[in-house]
Each structure stands twice: as C-alpha cells, then as structure tokens.
Amino acid sequence: MTELELISRARTHGDKVALHTKARDFSYAELLDRSATLAASFLGEADDLEEARIAFLAPAGFDYITTQWAIWRAGGVVMPLCLSATEPELEYALTNSKSSRVVTTRDHADKVADLCKRLNLPLTTLEDIDVVSEKPLPEISSDRRGMILYTSGTTSKPKGVVTTHANIQAQIESLVEAWEWQSTDRIPLFLPLHHIHGIINIASCALWSGASIEPFPHFTMETILRRVSEGAYTVFMAVPTIYVKLIQALESLPEGEREKIILEFSKLRLMISGSAALPASVHEKWTELTGQKLLERYGMTEIGMALSNPFHGERRPGAVGQALPKVEVRLKSEEGDLVTEEDEAGEIQVRGPGVFHEYWNKPEVTAESFDDGWFRTGDMAVIETGYYRIMGRLSVDIIKSGGYKLSALEIEAALLNHPAICECAVIGVNDDTWGEMVAVAAVLEEGAELSLDSLREWCRDQLSTYKIPKRLLLVDSLPRNAMGKITKPAVRELFQ
Ligand code: MLC
Ligand code: AMP
C-alpha cells in the first residue's frame, strides 16, 4: 500500500504528544484516528478525491492538522485559506482553484457561509461531521498534487503554487537533515498556516520528526514570553519582525523578569529567522541580549527553503549561507551569464526535487518562470567568502512586509476602486519593524478629499490588514518616464 511517509512515520510515534494545546495534549495516534475518520467522510461514496481541491479555514491546532492529513489521505489537494482574508480575497482563491468544498470550524463558519452559498459550494463544519466508519483509503503516489498555496507576485492577482507530495517530502527532508530535527523537539507555532513557513518549516518538519508543536491562533507577545520563560521549547522559528518586536518587549521589561526570559531563550537548541531579510543589526542585538546566534535562511513558496546558514559552524549576520541538502542554487547575471566569481551579483535560480510542480492553471507563466529547468526566483544575491547574501528583488512591485509577500499591483487595483482615487502607485518603504511598509502615492479625482484613516477604513472590506496602506501621499501627478510609465524609484523618492 502506498501511504504518505508523513502518515507512516506518525504511526511509529503513537502515543507521543504531537500537539500541546491549552485544552489538552493530542497524540500522534489521535491525529491518525481523526484524520482517517475525516478522510472517510470527505470521500463519501467515492474511493479517491482524485486531486479535488478542498479549501479549509481553521486556526493552528488539532482541527487544522487533522483536516490537512485527511484531505491528503483521501487523495485531495489541500488549500489552506488565510484566516484574516477579506471576502473578495477568499472568493478569488475559491473560484480560481475551482475548490469543490470548504471545510471549517463552527467558530469560523460565519466568515465563509454567505460566500459558499453564493458560489454554490458545500460548506462542512468539522464539529457537525457524522462519524462514518473508516473505509479503505486510496493509494497516494508521490507524483500527485498535494497542496496549493496562493502567493502574490508580479501579476496583479495571486498565483496558486502547486506542490506534489514528492515536492513536499523533499522540502521537509532537506530541513530535517540540515537543522537536525529531533523527536524531543518542542516548538511554538504562531505563524499563519496558509504559508510555507508555518506549514512546512514548522508544522510538517516537527510532525515528520515525532516532535511536539504548541499551536497558537496568532502571535501574542505576552503568551510567548511566558511560555519561553517556562522552558516550553527547544526550537523557535519566526520572521524578522517578530525578533524586532521581541527585542523591544524584552528591553521594556523590569530587569529581573527580563533576565529570567533571556536565560530560557539562551537555552534553546536552535532559533531561526526567515521569510524576509534579517538586518545584521537585529541579528547582533539578539546575540548580545541572549547569547543565541540566529540561523538565517532563505526560501520561497515555489521552492521551499534553498539557502541556510549552517546548524554547525558560522552563522553570519546579513548572510543566508549556502545551498541546503537536495537543493541546487546558481546565480545568473543580468546578461544571462552564469556567475562564477565571488562578489558578482546575479539572480538566484534553484533546481531540485523540492521545486514546485506548476502555477495552478497557468502553463505559460509556469514555463516563463524557469530557465532551462532552473526556477527563476527574482531575487538577486552575491556570494561573499562562501556565503550567499541577498541583495534585493528584481521587481519593484513585490513588497515584503512583516514576512508577507505583497503585490503592489494587486493593492493598486483595489485602491483604484476607491471613488476619490484617480491614479495611484503603491511601493514598499523601508521600516525598522516591518522590513517594508505599504505606501501609496495618489492623485485624487477633481474636488475629492482623502485621509489615510478613511482610506484604511475603506480598505478593510477589500484587503487583508497587512496589505492596507500605512502611508498616503497626495500628489498632483505621478512621476512617469518618456514612455508614460510610472517610475517607482521616483515614487519612492517622494516618500523620503
Ligand atoms: C499589521 N500591522 C502592520 C502590518 N501588519 N503595520 C505595518 N505593516 C504590516 N505589515 C499593524 C496593524 O495594522 C495593527 O495596527 C498592528 O500592527 C497589529 O496588527 P496584527 O495583525 O495584530 O499584527 P501582529 O499580530 O503583531 O502581526 C505581526 C506578525 C504577522 C509579524 C506576527 O505579520 C505575521 O504573522 N507575519 C508572518 C507572515 C509569514 O508567516 N510569512 C511567511 C510567508 S512564506 P493597529 O494600529 O491597528 O494596532 C515565505 C517563504 C519563506 O516568506 O522564506 O519563509
Ligand atoms: P514568499 O513568496 O511569500 O514565499 O516569499 C519569498 C520571498 O521572501 C523570497 O523571494 C525573498 O524575496 C524573501 N525572503 C525569504 N527569506 C529571506 C531572507 N532570509 N532574506 C531576504 N529575503 C528573504
């Protein structure tokens, strides 16, 4: 029988604690039992979901993991939705992926009920599933599609990144080997579970290894500091914004309390940063405070993780290390030549079994994103004394804020629906906490008025919180080049 390796490995972990939650602990055996029951229910009369896309909306925890495993075990493709998405964003993901049903919890049903009705999509609430007896589950070969994650990019609307089970397994195995995951590891999970950082690097690597996860619906400083001070974890993974916020929080604590938490941070066996550039100053400050040397790594939804500072050896501030196991990395210059020398910049291109299968329903875009079998990341880097250093992105239209990748074009398209806005240009402005922050320069309709507060209020129904502009500049005209195209570097100067 062909069973996913994640599932057969879980059998060997049996009674071990897989999830430690406030309510109670859940063992690996419980994850297996519940996911088998759910899989039988999702299958109904069918023998195999045959790659049907099943969207689900659930916070990190037992429901999330068992739904994910159940969809996989029944032969479906998991499509985790963003808990803070607006209705237009959810509608786009559901219709673009042609999802066949939405699964959620009673607590979250209100968020999708009307939409599902309008789209004529069955909505299943996990608490209301009739316990059907288990049934034989289909064989899942590793070349089948397993997951779609929506990622923003150089196109206005997000693209669905499809990975097969083989891709997912390769991404997990690479990290388990490089970072020496242990079955004794305990890790907090507070990052969103519609992105690869939370799904692969934390949840899947931990469960693959027989480790224990403490899930949280979102990041809350007080709770995390308390659990760290109780010695709850061995491994910690976060985006740079969280390390900046942790430094601010620790520095504002009374000395006794601070020292206690810092001592526990210093005992962790591994602390990792990724999803956006970790400023060298933050890296150094964290070492100064806790004695921990953060391990910075670089990755992307389409490729999993590609570059990492070493688990053993020098973890260099401002650098992302070297290629991970199972990953080949090369740099290609703007002229299209392979970069063979140190200190010469080039685009990062990646090849290997972890690289995604396709952009959902976009064969041309998929083909264009590869150069002779190598995925073109759109990120520029150099190698300096053996380590890669990320220099920035090729596209000005991609913004990274708080670790989220945002498309300036998607935000512009939404803002252009505002009745007061005639024209606009969205850029990311540098910010010490968020890395970049969304800023918009706008030309208003004749006689119209617009404040940042009212624009932000209007955006709440259209865009997730992190996409909503944090700065607004009203201008008479936008800077353009001779061809009439808006020049974003000149827009950025307007914000200086
Ligand atoms: C929220 N706020 C922002 C903001 N997001 N302000 C500026 N820029 C942003 N991006 C503001 C809100 O408006 C609000 O302000 C206040 O901050 C609190 O909002 P929140 O939503 O409660 O924020 P918080 O919970 O503190 O979120 C911060 C965070 C979150 C860092 C925990 O952004 C996060 O989880 N980021 C991780 C995303 C991630 O996992 N990316 C990985 C993608 S995969 P007010 O005024 O209303 O209080 C990938 C590949 C790889 O990148 O390599 O890993
Ligand atoms: P996403 O599309 O959300 O998966 O985000 C992937 C992008 O995040 C990459 O293309 C990079 O631009 C960025 N990124 C991830 N890790 C790092 C890092 N350590 N340093 C700089 N940028 C990073």
Structure description:
- With 496 residues, the chain is α/β, with parallel strands linked by helices.
- It folds into three domains: 5-140, Rossmann fold; 187-393, ANL, N-terminal domain (Rossmann fold, 3-Layer(aba) Sandwich), CATH 3.40.50; 398-494, GMP Synthetase, Chain A, domain 3 (2-Layer Sandwich), CATH 3.30.300.
- The protein is built from 15 helices and 26 strands.
- Strands 11-12-13-14-15 form a five-stranded mixed beta sheet. Strands 16, 17, 19, 20 and 21 form a five-stranded antiparallel beta sheet that branches. Strands 4-3-5-6 form a four-stranded parallel beta sheet, sandwiched between helices.
- Helix 5 (106-119) links the parallel strand 5 (101-104) and strand 6.
- The radius of gyration is 23 Å and the shape is globular.
- Residues 151, 196, 274-277, 296, 298-301, 320, 377, 379, 390, 393, 400, 405 line the site of adenosine monophosphate (AMP).
